[in-house]
Design a protein that fits this description.
globular, alpha/beta, Rossmann fold, five-stranded parallel sheet
Length: 130
């Protein structure tokens, strides 16, 4: 089963995205800040991380860069999911290592499809089987 770490500070967005993911049979672990996400990553390695850009403290962009430059987490796919959906934002996310960028409001089918595409490769690399 696929496990996703969802880093989102909006309770409403967290509930919507969690519902979308659970309907697709995906396990969801939530964090409401970059700091909380780092703590959870010390104890569990998810198959994928979904990051909002605007978070309390460190931004999702900064956390993405941190994840992609850390030897322990660099292979975990990162999807940035944000209302900041300009081409410049998407380019910046890609430059920082994001594997995908999905603008809000999120399309459920696009989100699930993106996760399935990214996690099938990750699970093969890490020796996991779907």
């Amino acid at each position: 089963m696929t496990t996703v770490l969802l880093v989102e500070d909006s309770l409403t967005e967290t509930q919507v995205l969690t519902r979308y993911l659970k309907q697709a049979g995906i396990t969801v672990v939530t964090a409401f800040s970059s700091e909380e996400a780092r703590l959870k990553l010390q104890f569990q390695t998810p198959d994928l991380v979904i990051l909002d850009v605007i978070l309390p403290g460190q931004s999702g962009f900064e956390l993405c860069r941190e994840l992609k430059t850390n030897a322990t987490t660099k292979r975990i796919p990162v999807v940035i999911c944000s209302t900041k959906g300009t081409e410049a934002d998407k380019l910046w996310g890609k430059m920082l290592g994001a594997d995908a960028y999905i603008p809000k409001p999120v399309d459920q089918q696009q989100l699930v499809q993106t996760i399935q595409q990214l996690t099938s490769g990750f699970q093969q690399q890490s020796g996991r089987i779907n």
